[in-house]
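Sequence only, no structure available. Ideas?
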Amino acid sequence: MNLRTRLSSTISRLQTNRFLRRLFTLSAGTAIGQALMVAVTPFLTRLFTPAEFGSFAVFSALFGMFSGIMCLRYELAVPLAASEEETAAVARLCGFAAFAMTALLFLFVWLGGERLALMVEAPELARLLWLMPPALLCWGLALPLNFWSIRLGTFRVNALNRILQYAAQAASQLAFGIVGTGSPGLVLGFALGHLVKIGHFLSALSSGERTLLRQSAWSEARQAAVRYRRFPAFSILSTLFQSSSQLLPAMLVAAIYGPVAAGWFALSQRIMGFPVMM
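Reply:
I predicted one. Tokens follow.
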């Protein structure tokens, strides 16, 4: 069987197999978005210094550690909800959890932000950490909407959402770099990507679904919290430990070798990790 025949056979399977078609759609959205970020990296390296990338790398590591628990893992219950009303209640519950976690993160930054910045020898990080709770809030609000999209089977919307997120992040980081904002520009561009993600998901919901989300009561969210309590009970610690093991290297590089080395390490990770993310 030659290459052309194999390619035709693969395309035929994608067209007839709904699971493969949806998987390909999601993968294509992720691949295009990641390709955009890799494509702008050479320009970003001319607009931001390695030390600024190093501070952003430590910020990204902390962001990654906390991102998985912003909704207390209740977002996993969105596809399992028995009805659209309960789906809206779980999404509202995720929003409450995200705001509560944001308040705790502000307390964490207030108590230990400067100490952490001194530990990794990146004074600029102390200022960046104040942007972490709002950025994580954007992530947390987008998370249940992402799972709601999967529940509805709108995989093209989901794929387009990822492209728009990364495109907005790339464009805004380039703009902030041209203005000369320094490492806060990298963080703000990162957060703006998630704001675009939220806006696109909300616009993709039907008017009825948006009404359900607005009218969902706290009592319904509380019932959903009790019904799906096993998700936070069994998933939070494992998620936190897993993300920490994957993201701590950037913090260790910064602490041992300084923010410049952490910046080069982060850039290497972005380029070399691209095939894996594909």
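The chain has a mean pLDDT of 86.
Hope that gets you unstuck.
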